[in-house]
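Work package 3, deliverable 3.1, input record:
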Amino acid sequence: MRVLDSLRFRIATLFRGSEIDAEMEEELRSHIQHRADDLERSGLDRAEAERRARIEFGGQVKYKEECHDALGNNFIETLLQDVRFSLRVLRKSPGFTLAAIVTLALAIGANAVVFAILNALILHPRNVPQAESLYGIEHGSDKSPLESYPDYLDLRDRNQSFDGLAAYNVCWAGLDTGKDATEVGGYEVSGNYFDALGIQPYLGRFFNAADEHGPNSAPYMVLTYSFWHSHFQDDRSVVGRVVRLSKHPFTIVGVTPPDFQGTLLFISPDFFVPLVNKEQLDGEDILNARGNRKLLMALGHLRAGVTPAQAIADLNSIGSYLEKSYPQDDADMKFTLVRPGLAGDFLGGPVKAFVTGLMLLAGLMLLAACANLGSLFAARAADRSREVALRLALGSSRNRILRQVFTESVLISLVGGTLGLLGSMVLLRVLSTWEPLPGIRSLHIPVHPDANVYWVALLLALASGFLFGAVPVRQILRTNPYEIIKTGSIGKVGRRITLRDLLLGVQIAICAFLVTSSLVAARGLLRSLHSNFGFEPRNAMLVHTDLSTAGYRGDSVATMQKRMIEALETIPGAKSVGLVSWPPLGGGWIKSDVFTEQTTDLSLSNAAANAFLYNISPDYFQAAGTALLAGRPFSWHDDKNAPRVAVVNQEFAHKIFGSVTNAIGRQYKMPDGARMQVVGVVEDGKYLSLAEEPQPAMFLPFLQAPSSVTRLVVRSSRDPQQLAAAMKTTLQDLDAGLPFTIGPWTMDAALFAPHVATVSLGVMGVMGAMLAVTGIFGMAAYSVSKRLRELGIRIALGAQRRGVLEAALARPLKLLALGSAAGLLLGTLATRVLAFIVYQATPRDPLVLGGVVLAMVLLGLLATWIPAQRALSVDPAILLREE
Amino acid sequence: MTPQAQLLPGTLDLLILRAVSLGPLHGYGILLRIGQISRNALLIEQGALYPGLFRLVRQGLLKASWGTSENNRRAKFYELTAAGRKRLREETESWNRLATAIGAALAEQPEEA
């Protein structure tokens, strides 16, 4: 009963806040009146009696606060009160409020976006049941995520640690459903793939280990939900239908659930087929090739109770068994476990480093924003020192005033945080539908904000609210009410360095740092576009196709390739046509170990180098614009009946033979023991990334080293785009069932990372600049308003405009100069890191340095313009009259 | 004038309950009544009364209503609730027990060895 009453009372007080306030006021007034009545009766006049009564009563504000406390539920009650008061205060200075909210919205929005990316790519990469026990495996000192199929079988069958170890490989195939043949991307997976992951079909069934009975025994196909939706229009009757993949019949057995998009981020497959049927898809038989580790990535759930360390020990013991049993094929079989999704550390390393760096930058931005707002708050607190002093003098506690200040700051941070989060969600939605590399349809950045992101944004908002709210605390605690009320405003214009100066300096430094890094990145990117990669992508078209997807096998592949080259050469405007398996910097590549001529034990540990391998046609170097340094290119006579020959690059020649001239005519060995004679040497190029060091590479004639993966480079003397139509009809005339795409030769794949880095740094730089502007503006405006009277006197005494400006703005400008210098220095140091992502990123570039200085000067001008105008327009007459 | 003593913590509530037990009073009246029944021996700052009053109302020991005072001014009058009456009885007893015990302890003359 009591509890109920008390509850009702609490709730009533909650909603009747101001009413209770008024009632309390009236009650205390009534008390003082009664006392005054008594005092009047004892002979005092009314005014004196009331004065005495008020003194006797004691601090009214203090007792009122205590009464509120006594009413209980003071937390929510005072909170509401504080919120109401804060809203009133903030409404009175809309400019300040707006600036603060926008600043925070930007900073928290940036953090939310970056964290969502971090969350999606690194923290919670895959949408798989019990994702926390899912691990991918890698081996060797180079952390290769790729295994050969026989090794995978040994690992799968001999390990004691995994609840089923699955393997998968990304593949492409021509899909023929009766209409036009289209190229589709998918995974070739081990039979236990779905069972090991614990995925249930959305429709139909999945194939499983029991379906596999040797090579090409399981012609079954599972569609992903999104492909089923886009390509088969949600037709439930597709289950059981037979379609042709690379000319071979496959039966569609099921559809995956909508939220499962494969186990590799960025590349969402259209379909899944069993690995044992790989030969049908691309003609490659890997099932017995233990040395062929180009493809498979293995992953699985750890058994309950097995720690990662135990699993690694288990895998390593299998590894040493493999090394002993197959020294020809297996070396360095030391295993590590990784989070699946980013092809292990291969992609995971750089992505992790980049996103972590981005997160760090975003954190710095938020810190800058807090510093900024903190100094604005401190400035306001100084302006409000009279109000604070008055409240203190009337008996209000400092705690209460601090609470009030924090309520204000947290209120701002919550509103700003919410706006920032909303903005970031819009941005993320755009990001996840973005296709960064046109032409690779299945490439996505799947970022969907989840509860984690919301929590982090909320926490960041609250934390920053408290952080910048804490800046003026010391000031308030130090307030001496009597001093301030006696002397008016704090007349001291401090010359020493205050916390506020320091905060602004740090912030300007961060801004200059960001501006420096983004300029360095942009310049590096621009330069990369015009540097020499060992080939010339401009004025060339590229045909992408894979002959195995149209059913070509064996000798028919090379025959067809030759016909295609000859046909394309007849197109008017085509200067030269070359063929290459995977073009350099195209995102796909093949590497092979090579051995010196003298090596007889061809174990992996004896390899002389690991070189990029390109299968090319005789005219490729001409078509690609790669310079031949010595020897000869291939001819059509370098075919199966001729001795095996190779063209190597400069780096290869130096590494194996000592020099370019030494290399011509010499021999080296391939892992299968084949002797290759070097007939030519070409210039070095970039093969995998723009920022890489020179890498050894070898080029083999496609007639001796066939590849069904085919890229045809067509160099043109005019606008290469004009050739596209003619190329298309030419190729279709040769084989209407061959899926292919035609596009200009771009390096989007190689430039993707530097692009992303430059754009994100640019965005950060712009935001940093905005923050610096508000920060400097706040400081300059404050310093001008504090010293209006002094400036007025100076003007009245005949000070020049220059002198006035100097007096008003010297300090913020000095901070700007110091901060910029520090930021520039930091940026210069940090760009060494940047050089790993962006080719030729160097800060030792007069354009970059000049750009940074110019940017900072402009920022300074922009930020101090209004305060300067205000300082100059001071009218001493009006000002002195007012004060 | 008798020398005034500081209130022991917690005793203000008891005094308020006692003052109000004789009939409904407004705040200033309670203060006067306490002065009267304690023969002005206790020092209470006037404002300090109100947090106590609000606390007692919240605990359901007092109830308050607006009325007109003897000076013809609007004032808030407090009176005991049933719970308040019960609490006053209990507190008085326990206070008396305590006071007797302390008094006895202080009055005891220790035997000198």
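The first strand of chain B starts at residue 5 and ends at 6.
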